[in-house]
Amino acid sequence: MSGPTGRRTDRRWERRYAGAAAVSDVGAALLAVAAGLLGDPAGLRADLCAAALLSAAVVGGLVVAAVATRAWDRRMLGQGPDEFGRLFRAVGATAAIVGVAGLLLDSPATTAWLFGVVPFLGLLAATGRYVLRRRLHALRRRGGGLLRVLAVGSDEAVADLISRTQRAPQHGWRVTGACTSTGTGPAASPELLGVPVVGDLDAVGPTARTGGYEVVAVAPVSGWGHHRLRRLAWELGGTGIDLVVQPGLIDVTGPRLHVAPVDGLPLLKLSEPVLGRGAALVKAVMDRTVAATLILLLAPVLLAVTLSIKATGGPVLAHDVRVGRGGRLIRVLRFRTTTGAGHGPEAVTAIGALLKASAVEELPQLFNVLAGSMSLVGPRPPRPVELAASGRDAHRTLLVKPGLTGLWQVAGRGGLTWEESVRLDLRYVESWSPALDALILWRGVRGVVRGGRALHR
Questions:
Q1: What's the pLDDT tens digit per position in 414-438?
Q2: Are 243 and 218 in contact (CB under 8 A)?
Q3: Which of 68, 197, 208, 370 has its CA at a distance of 20 to 30 angstroms from the CA of residue 286?
Q4: Domains of the chain
């Protein structure tokens, strides 16, 4: 706990982690270069000047691009899709640098390096970052590598922040103190969800400086305006304590969020949550390409399951009627797991129980993706009755295609209520990015492989 000693967590591990990320990326570049030279496209090894320039363009270009895109910023490492987004932007910039070097050389090897070496670099670098992240998350689940947080806000806001950090220790926060409007918890309790309440709103600055905190997280609370927040920022200046502010009015991140200053007043501007034509085209092509590839790779499994179900009599496929993009009804395919055309747990066949337990039941939905009615990643497809009984929030998720997997499926905990699923779906719709899709898809596949959990409820 923070408090009496006033000692902060040793944060040198952050610099070491950032250094490890840089070493991993540069190592990936060196390995990619070695692969390119060993592949010897167009006799490149015979032209030492061209080989040296292209090699320098890959390694040096990645270093310059990583610095420019802040891909090694310690504050963005180890959590969220933004880390991989910055890494991929750095790799893309490296490709541009390699292209310029190729124009200067007029070498036939340039094409092979652009479409072979640089993508291989991206794959190696992403793999290295993933391994580092897994090790960091394992450390945080054991209680290490966590930053002590002083939560400021109303009882409800502080309790929500405490619950979130306890559910998701991989984000690296541990709330060890709280400051509330009254200086106490509910019913004048000295604690809030087991976290000591160490002061009121006037005590935030002194408490943060002397209490051993690395982060001050300010949530919405009555009586806390921008003047008070500015004074707190001044008080924390030079202490190394991070000041984090929850907007309160919005739950949006990613490319939709912009700062639009008006006469010196910074305002948060939200763009419309729809995919641009270019992004929509890329997402559609990737959906169909990946779905077709998976169908081909899983063809033996699909055939074996088809024959097993056919042997029990009745149709191989069943479907659920769900609501798709724009409110259009779609038929979400699945393997039949019940006797005949029946429904209900009492009619589940032996092969059906196995399919449900392994999530293989949902594989036919790849054909939904191939046909364009679903996406690999997206909101949970609601049943018409669920949508009819819901408010405007659930209808907002119909702006994009439903997905085989999504935030609702990779949330990291079971038993989500309908309201929690809708909240996560809204976060996806409001904050979509390609990096977020890639992260969700990877976590979804990993979750199915490890735990065999079904994709839809």
A1: 567 777 788 888 878 777 777 788 8
A2: yes
A3: 68
A4: 12-141 (no CATH), 147-249 (3.40.50.1380), 277-451 (no CATH)
